[in-house]
Structure formats: C-alpha cells, structure tokens
From TrEMBL:
GO molecular function (one): oxidized purine DNA binding
Listed PANTHER family: ADENINE DNA GLYCOSYLASE (PTHR42944)
Species, as recorded: Microbacterium esteraromaticum
Stated family: Belongs to the Nth/MutY family.
Gene3D superfamilies for this protein: Helix-hairpin-Helix base-excision DNA repair enzymes (C-terminal), Hypothetical protein, domain 2
Occurrences of domain HhH-GPD (ranges): 47-198
Lineage: superkingdom: Bacteria
Gene Ontology biological process terms in this record: base-excision repair; mismatch repair
Record's protein name: A/G-specific adenine glycosylase
One Pfam family recorded for the sequence: HhH-GPD
Swiss-Prot/TrEMBL keywords: DNA damage, DNA repair, Glycosidase, Hydrolase, Iron, Iron-sulfur, Metal-binding
Length: 298
C-alpha cells in the first residue's frame, strides 16, 4: 500500500455534502454501535453484500433482536440461521456468518476483532468486509472499496463511464485519496460509497446535483461511454439461482423445515434444473438430503 498522500482538493466538499445529506440508516446511528458493537457492523455488512438497503433493514433488526451478540448466535443451529435469513438472497452468507460467530467466540472471547488481518481469518470475510468493520466501527484508517466507490473513482478521477474489473489496484487507488486523519478518512470512505449509491449511480447519474461536478473528469470530457468490461450476472428468471431459492423457501415454510423429496417437484417442475439445485444446496451445506427427505441442516 502506498504511503499516504495529500487528499484531493475536493475531499472536504465531499465530506461536507455527506454530513448534510447522508441517509439515516440504522448502522450509522450512535446507539446502534453502542448496543451491538462491532458485531452489528459485521452483520449489516454481510447482509448488504449484493442486497438493496431497503430489503436489509427489517431483516437486520430481526436478526440482531434474536442474536444481539456473536455468543448468542454461536448457539444457533444452521437450520435456524438459514430460516432467519429468509429471502435476503445468497443464503451461504447466513452459514458463513454463523461460522464467523463461532470463531469469534472460540478465538476472540466473543468480541469481533479490530485488526484487518484477524478479521480476514473469519469465515466469509473478504477485503471489503474486514476493512468496513475496522473503519466504520473501530474508526481505523483503511481504504474501503465497494462497487459504488469504484464507480465514483472511475468517473471522478479517471474519466471512465464504468470502472474496470475489480483488482488489487482498487485498494491502492483509494488509499491515495484518503485524508490522513483517521476520523476524516472514515467519513471520506462512507461519503464515497454514499455518492455512488444515491448520485453517481450506474444507469442514471444525477450529475446536476453532484457536489463534485466541477471536479469530475468524466463530466468534463462530455460523459463518453468508455465501455464496461465487468462480467455480467446471469439473468435470474428461470436460472438455477431461482430454483435454489424456490427450494429453500419451500423448506423454510414447511413444518419442521423438512419435506419428502418428491414434494420438491411441485416447487420446481424442471427435473434437471431441480436436481442441480438440490445438489448444489447440499454441497453448500444449506440443506440435507437423506432417507427420501429434504431438510434444512441440523
């Protein structure tokens, strides 16, 4: 990681804008941090991966009411966490979060660690989540880069309509933009993400209200379409992902979270796709199949 450099001239304007306009989200409130500590931040970041904020909020509140600490969640069964995850999507995250809670209890006395290196050792945690916990709860100085941040950097600094595919360069680039003070760098990280989420959006950027419009390289260049080389996600409708979701929903809603294997045909008629979905769910540890029965994991 390069040594800190002077922050860009527009960093103060961005942070000021964030202070005036930031959305009132549960994980940004002081009482949230006081009540749930770093565990609350960790749970929210797990849920926010590839899931819209509006869908996350009610699930987050229910989750933390049921399991307000890693120790509380460590006593849950895999079936309970998969059921509680409901329709948030990418349900392997629920199992990873459960394993991370167990690891926090067993190796960190029930306290989510502060160091990025130790956070990265927990199940399901990558560069983004580890740094998000260290920055947004503990207030340390690290670059935090999500999809929104990458898009803002691409347009504002590099004059591109869309970011390049993710790479280690993302953290390096963000690191050179961070203010040196820890508190200021934490706000800056959050402000870059917020700008990308509500103003510098992928399809319909609101350049007319952007606080950094006068500094934007892409806007100055006339908003050229420079292409997008990122891998596109496959269509959801009719996909194996949709089949997996239908089968998991069936089990979450079934009495005792188990059904005869033949009942699955009623929930996904394409036999080949249904079998692939069942096999992949079993491989991921999200369901169990034995004795002619499907069930959530014990």
């Amino acid at each position: 990681m390069p040594a800190p450099t002077s922050p860009p001239a527009w960093s103060d304007a961005l942070s000021d804008w964030y202070g005036r306009t930031a959305r009132d989200l549960p994980w940004r409130r002081a009482d949230f941090s006081e009540q749930y500590g770093a565990w609350g931040t960790l749970v929210s970041e797990f849920m926010l991966q590839q899931t819209p904020v509006a869908r996350v909020i009610p699930h987050l509140e229910a989750w933390l009411e049921r399991w307000p600490t890693p120790a509380a969640m460590a006593t849950a069964t895999p079936a309970q966490v998969v059921h509680q995850w409901a329709n948030l999507g990418y349900p392997r995250r629920a199992l990873w979060l459960h394993r991370a809670a167990v690891q926090v209890v067993e190796h960190h006395d029930g306290v989510v660690p502060r160091e990025v290196s130790k956070l990265l050792e927990l199940s399901g945690i990558g560069d983004y989540t580890a740094r998000a916990v260290a920055v947004f709860h503990y207030g340390d100085r690290h670059p935090v880069v999500d999809t929104n941040t990458r898009r803002v950097i691409a347009r504002l600094v590099e004059g591109l309509s869309a970011p390049e595919p993710p790479s280690a360069r993302d953290l390096t680039r963000m690191s050179t933009l961070l203010p040196e003070a820890r508190a200021a760098s934490s706000v800056f990280n959050a402000a870059m993400m917020e700008l990308g989420a509500v103003v510098c959006t992928a399809r319909s950027p609101k350049c007319e209200v952007c606080p950094l419009a006068s500094d934007c390289a892409w806007l100055k260049a006339g908003q050229p379409q420079t292409g997008d080389r990122r891998r596109r996600q496959a269509r959801y409708e009719g996909s194996d992902r949709q089949a997996r979701g239908a089968l998991l929903r069936m089990l979450r809603e079934a009495p005792e979270h188990r059904v005869p294997a033949g009942v699955a045909a009623e929930h996904w008629p394409d036999g080949g796709q249904r079998d692939r979905a069942i096999d992949s769910l079993v491989a991921d540890g999200l369901i169990e199949a034995s004795d002619g029965e499907l069930r959530l994991p014990a």
